[in-house]
Amino acid sequence: MNEYKKMAIMDIIQSSNTIEKIEKFKAYKFLLGDCRIFLFDEEGSNFDDSVKNKKIGKFGIWGIGDYTKTWILDSKHLFERSLVRVGKTIDFDLNILTYLNKVMMGHKINLDENEFLNYLSHLKNTGFQIGMTTALMERV
Q1: Which residues are registered as beta bridge partners of 56?
Q2: Is 34 exposed, middle or buried (0-12, 13-18, 19+ CB in 10 A)?
Q3: CA pair distance 47, 67, nearest whole angstrom
Q4: What CA–CA distance (Å, rounded) separates 77 from 74?
Q5: In a designed cystine with 94, which of 29, 110, 126, 135 is the match (CB 3.0 to 4.6 A)?
Q6: pTM score, two decimals?
């Protein structure tokens, strides 16, 4: 990366608010090209509300960060109101996979089955991909 790009990125990041960062990114677009800048701890987000932490009964969806304060600057999302489409993956732990297996096999589970099914429906309706990396690590 050349020195001019570095200086432009530093100027953007050191701006006092999100609107100013967006405006500077627009001004430097010709210099930055296909650059993306991920901003954390902003006043708002250009992600939709489906990335918010959520509790559904005894079940929860918790991100590793507060995505309601994350903003991505790139040439495709230059405007304040433009939402960024992101892939969302949730990693089930071993308990959830055990509950899921029991429900699929027609066995009783030790919790409110409707609550669990509502949780799974929410994941499906908001476009989450399912992973099981956490459960695999628990087993190791």
Answers
A1: 59
A2: exposed
A3: 7
A4: 5
A5: 135
A6: 0.68
Q: Which amino acid is at 134?
A: T
Residue whose C-alpha is closest to residue 31's, from 9, 14, 49, 46: 9
Q: From 25, 4, 2, 29, select the one nearest 15 (Cα to Cα).
A: 25
Rounded to whole angstroms, the Cα distance separating 34 from 22 reads 15
Instruction: Give, for all 140 residues of the chain, the pLDDT tens digit.
Output: 688 889 999 999 999 888 899 889 989 988 888 888 888 888 877 777 778 889 998 898 888 888 888 888 887 666 555 666 778 899 998 989 998 999 889 998 888 888 999 999 999 999 999 999 888 888 88
Query: Mutual orientation of helices 18-32 and 3-13 as an angle, nearest 10°?
Result: 170
